[in-house]
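Give me the 3D structure for Putative cytochrome P450.
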Amino acid sequence: MHANRPALAPGGLPLLGHLPALLSRPLAFLDTLPAHGDLVRIRVGPREMYVASGPEAVRRVLTDRTGYDRTGPLYGKIRAFLGNGLASCPHADHPRLRRIVQPAFRPGLLPHYAGAMTAETAALLAGWRPGRAVDVTREAFRLTTAVAVRTLFSAGLEPPAAEALRAALDVLLRGIYLRVVLPAADLLPTPARRNYRRALATWRSGVAAIIADHRARGIDRGDVLALLLAARDEHGRPLAEDELADQVATLVLAGAETTSSALAWSLRLVAEHPEVERKLHAEVDAVLPDGRPAEWSDLPRLPYAARVIDEALRLYPPAWAISRTTTRPVELDGAELPAGALVVCCLYLLQRRPELFPRPQEFDPDRFADGGMPRGGYLPFGFGATKCLGDRFGLAEAVLALATVAARWRLRPAAPGPVRPVPRLVLSPGPQPMLPRARR
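Predicted structure for Putative cytochrome P450 (440 residues):
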């Protein structure tokens, strides 16, 4: 399998390969790869990975379920955190789990979920004060965690429990990225490993508490957990106890971290682009003239707010790198890959390709006007059978929250300088304190 090998990215070090760059400046390193092709080899210690950034190669990897699967050491580490949930299970388990979870995200339930989104956004903003800095990344996560728990499980988390869940998730998402690029991290008796294991225990106990609370109340409130408890597969079997916990963990992560990342990026990008801010304020002032929280019925009249979210997702897709392992020798982008090869579909690079998005580094929500999304070039929720089930849920929540914030507040960075993305399992903007100024 040495014929037609993809180009090897330059700059690798003896023994370490490209590991130092992936740990210290991963996005800057990734930005250099398209110059060497749509499929590029990188070395992480003794291992090789293949980074795909071309639309055809990415689509092929994400849709060929016989040649590529969610297996190998990387997904083993993810499943140690998330379990065998819908976002991490091998393809053999996916159809059954998807059939069980899918009814919880049918379109008819979204207006009901939106009521909780509106209420939780209003409750969050009630604690903001003019001139008092708020970390919008943390605030966005507080909001989406509260919405996830309330809509999915008809429950509320007390602030200490919510903060413990947030802090644990932050450690885990960083820790998984470290373990992907540095597998030996689990073998070294370091404080970071101890923190990771404590966070994992906190996360699992938090998920167990959500399920236990739901069962203790014993009332079917039509939420997602009730649907999961009542669900049966084609053979009439319910979810096993460990499967139930895995699905709950996956839904909390998907409902909280990915949407909060999109919202936090949007708030920062709007503050940095006065013309975008002007257009957004004009729209929300017309729809929400009294500054009330945005509701489900307002969504059709908030197209610009939706485009702001779309553009933030283009520049900073939460699922910025999706990996698969080859199950047999395959041909990809003219190259021959052996069985067991790790292929990383880099959506961060795909969605910044100049032939797909002119001026790709610019934040321009109007590029999405009139359906301006190139086929196969915009995949913030993945693609194919494993595409995120909750995409409409997350988009609705992000748009409602963005519009509500913009109707009441003008945000400005509390300190000069750009925000540095924090690459981890989800691409987060990291801490970003901002100063709210009341618009009304």
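The chain has 15 helices and eleven strands. Let me know if you want a second pass.
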